[in-house]
Amino acid sequence: MTIDTVIFKFDLSAGARETDWSDLAPTVDRLGLTDSELRYLFTHGSGEASKANLLWHSRFQVSASSTKTFDLLAGVEDGLFGTNATFTTVRGLYFRNTEVGQGDQKVLIGRPSVGGWNEIWEGSQAATAGEHVYAGGSVMKVNPTATGWVVESANKDLIVVNDNAFIVTCDLLLLGDD
Questions:
Q1: CA of residue 48 relative to chain centroid, distance
Q2: Is residue 152 assigned to a domain?
Q3: Which tens digits make up the pLDDT trace of 59-68?
Q4: pLDDT digits (tens, 9 = 90+) for 98-123
Q5: Domain range for 120
Q6: Are 135 and 127 in contact (CB under 8 A)?
Q7: Stated pTM of the model
Q8: Comparing C-alpha atoms, which of 131, 172, 176, 126 is closest to residue 150?
Q9: Residue 78, by phi and psi: left (phi above 0), alpha (psi -120 to 50) or beta?
Q10: Does residue 20 lie within any of the structural domains?
Q11: Is 95 part of any domain?
Q12: How far apart are CA 117 and CA 131, in angstroms?
């Protein structure tokens, strides 16, 4: 799929106000984040900062007590339009565990085996490198630099592990270069 412009954005508003009344005049500390501080803009291209030429996403299920493997180098299958995508660099990842009401049940997205893609987890060689995502939770990672996160033959599999006793439905979006 050709990319003109992609905006990675969380619709999030956060704010806090703390007041200290220990003196006659109150001290107020305010914190606030706006959409513009949480927005990442990518335009069409490759090999340059904030550019990408490949967008892929899918909603998929992981069976109980099993794994789902995405081979980023050989071609991630089953995209929304039935397309496959081969990544050499990833610049953005969004993952969501869509399950609701399952308590603290979680899945692990990352590199739980040899050959797993570890670049996005800061090159960790640990077999458990990755991130646990609880039911209803999500994780987003963005690397708008020119190098992004490299995908290579020794580390190419993005793996989702479901240790639960039920099927889990997940969303995955990848942005990068072919």
A1: 20
A2: yes
A3: 899 998 899 9
A4: 988 666 678 988 866 666 777 777 76
A5: 53-177
A6: no
A7: 0.79
A8: 176
A9: left
A10: no
A11: yes
A12: 13
